Amino acid sequence: MSAFNPQHRTSTAGQITIALYRIGQAIEYLLRHRGQANHLSPAQIQALIFLRYARPEVRTIGGLAQRLGVTYATTSNIADALQAKGLIARRPLPEDQRVITLHLTPQGVTRVGEVEDVLDEIEAAVTELAPTDQAALQRASQAIVRRLQQRGYIQVYEMCWGCQFFRPNAHPETPHLPHHCTFVDAPLAESNTYLECPDFVPTEERR
Ligand code: SF4
């Protein structure tokens, strides 16, 4: 029976499913509302936040398309609109001039600061829960996200700490690049370990 059918909400799974749907609606509303106040679409807000926190190598039209779950053409239009507003710039990657990367301009960085607290309402609602409820919700929501990721519905970006490929302090001889990623087999600067990466795999999970 469909989760939208009120009769289905006699089951726990049905009630939780429709609650998750409503949370999704609230997030859509918050993004839309914040966007109207800042002359940005919800997708443009998400693109700016992506460019603020994603690993530099994935800040491309392709990386953004994957993150937003939309086509390359749609992403290109989003980037054009943000560039026309002076919030982002396109630049070739120094190592490979054929790869065009997207960068926040100083105005773009300022604008991210004005919109990135858009999920504070959601976090405030979670913070009001008892610690035991928060722990149970954390476990359950992570399990749901993992399943959705495995089925290909979402792409999860996370930072290095907690990733199975991360080797902290593997290079004590080079303080500017002290850590190591075994996925790309390259050393990592401390600041890069706090950026979001699409290749993240939690330590408890195997590929
Ligand atoms: S694969 Fe893991 S360790 Fe490597 S950069 Fe991505 S998050 Fe960091």
Query: What does the largest sheet look like?
Result: 3 strands, antiparallel
User: What would the principal axes of the Cα set say about the shape?
Assistant: globular
Structural class: mainly alpha
- Give the CATH architecture of the largest domain: Orthogonal Bundle
Fraction in beta strands: 5-15%
What do we call the CATH homologous superfamily of the largest domain? Winged helix-like DNA-binding domain superfamily/Winged helix DNA-binding domain
Strand order of the largest sheet: 3-4-5
In total, how many beta strands? 5
Structural features:
Arc Repressor Mutant, subunit A, 47% helix, binds iron/sulfur cluster, 207 residues, mainly alpha, three-stranded antiparallel beta sheet, 11% strand, two-stranded antiparallel sheet
Q: How would you portray this structure in words?
A:
With 207 residues, the protein is mainly alpha-helical. The chain folds into two domains: 6-143, Arc Repressor Mutant, subunit A, CATH 1.10.10; 158-206. The protein is 47% helix and 11% strand. It has seven helices and five strands; from the N terminus they run H-H-H-H-E-E-H-H-H-E-E-E. The strands form two sheets. A three-stranded antiparallel β-sheet has the order 3-4-5, with no helix packed on it. A hairpin with a 2-residue loop joins strand 1 and strand 2 (96-104). The radius of gyration is 19 Å and the shape is globular. Iron/sulfur cluster (SF4) binds at residues 160, 163, 165-166, 181, 183-184, 197, 199-200.
How are the SSEs placed, and which strands pair?
Layout: H1 12-38, H2 42-53, H3 61-68, H4 72-84, E1 88-93, E2 96-104, H5 106-115, H6 120-127, H7 131-150, E3 166-167, E4 179-181, E5 186-188
Antiparallel strand pairs: 1-2, 3-4, 4-5
Helix pairs in contact: 2-4, 2-5, 3-4
